Amino acid sequence: MKDTILSFEDVKLIYHTVRGETVATEGLTFSVEEGEFVAIIGPSGCGKSTLLSLAAGLLTPSEGTVVRRGSVGYMLQRDELFPWRTIEKNLFLPLEVKKKLTPDAKRRARALAEKYGLGDFLQSYPAQLSGGMRQRAALIRTLAAEPDVLLLDEPFSALDYQTRLNVTQDVSEIIRSEGKTALLITHDISEAISLADRVIVLTGRPARVAHVHTLDFGAVTDPLRRRENGQFSGWFELLWKELNA
Q1: pLDDT score, position 5
Q2: 9 and 130 together in one domain
Q3: Which CATH number belongs to the domain containing residue 198 in this structure?
Q4: CA geometry: angle at 137 spanning 2 and 98, to 5°?
Q5: N or C end: fewer C-beta atoms under 10 angstroms in the chain?
Q6: Do 5 and 24 belong together in one domain?
Q7: What phi-psi label fits residue 59: left (phi over 0), alpha (psi between -120 and 50 degrees) or beta?
Q8: Inside any domain, residue 95
Q9: 104 and 207 assigned to the same domain
Q10: Starting at the edge strand that comes first in sequence, how are the strands of the sheet with 63-68 ordered?
Q11: Degrees (nearest 5) of the Cα angle 240, 173, 42?
Q12: Hey, which bits of the chain come out as E strands?
């Protein structure tokens, strides 16, 4: 049995404003195991991004506990690469912030770039790369800091459909080949099915866990092959109904 690397236990989060209180989550309970890829879907405005902020330690629960083993890396909806820095310098940024920019860390970042097709672009600037390549660079930048858990906040939503499919393929390959644990927030049911080992469905606000599904595609982890699999439409129909119940 694998170790639990992230867990939410009966988590309640209340936002306080001048107009009063807003309960964002209540009784939120789930866990993520080491090496697992978990996707979370839920109605618009239910607090999916709030959940990632709790997982990252950026927010503290009003009640309940969030337990993390190790460090987290956060990948945002846009690549957020600094346009005045080369791709190499962008990859080094989290290492600089953490004061871990050692020769070994630099070599690892460059090796990741080389391994995943960015080796020839290290001295290029973000504006010289396609949207898909920039998003790949953003993931490698996150991995360069060697996080234990990757938090993915709708990282493909800013891309056009074709680029989105290609980048989804890239991200899945990189995360799985590096053996990383990932927690993905998405509003795209197809994306969740094509990427995840498990899908967690949230209720409307305040967010609770409504359903948890283990996706059994056998050894198939390739997102495009999953979309072609006969089970795909059945999972989509079920999750659509649960999401719109």
Answers
A1: 95
A2: no
A3: 3.40.50.300
A4: 70
A5: N
A6: yes
A7: beta
A8: yes
A9: no
A10: 20-33, 4-17, 63-68
A11: 25
A12: 4-17, 20-33, 37-41, 63-68, 72-75, 149-153, 181-185, 198-202, 209-214
153 strand-pairing partners: 185
Residues 159, 245, single domain; the answer is yes
Same domain, 32 and 43: yes
- Do 52 and 85 lie in one domain? The reply is no
Query: Quick one: pLDDT at residue 78?
Result: 79
Joined together, the tokens standing for residue 211 give 């359903």
Structurally, how many domains does the chain consist of? 2
Q: Residue 150 contacts by C-beta under 8 Å, 6 or more apart in sequence?
A: 72, 73, 75, 142, 143, 175, 180, 181, 182, 183
Spatial separation of the C-alpha atoms in residues 60 and 155, rounded to whole Å: 24
Q: What's the CA gap between 128 and 130, in Å, rounded?
A: 7
Q: Tell which residue, 194, 144, 124, 128, has the closest CA to residue 164.
A: 194
Nearest to 30 by CA among 16, 11, 44: 11
Torsion of CA 27, 157, 75, 45, to 10 degrees: -20
Same domain, 51 and 158: yes
Asked if 116 and 19 sit in the same domain, the reply is no
Q: Dihedrals φ, ψ of 216, to 5°?
A: -105, 90
Residue-level pLDDT at 212: 97
Residue 184 belongs to what domain range? 1-70+149-164+179-213+241-245
Q: Per-residue pLDDT tens for 89-143?
A: 999 998 998 888 999 999 999 999 998 889 999 999 999 998 888 888 988 898 8
Which segments of the chain have a pLDDT < 70? 1
Residue 222 falls within a domain, yes or no? no
The one-character DSSP state at 33 is E
Separation CA 13–CA 219 (nearest Å): 38
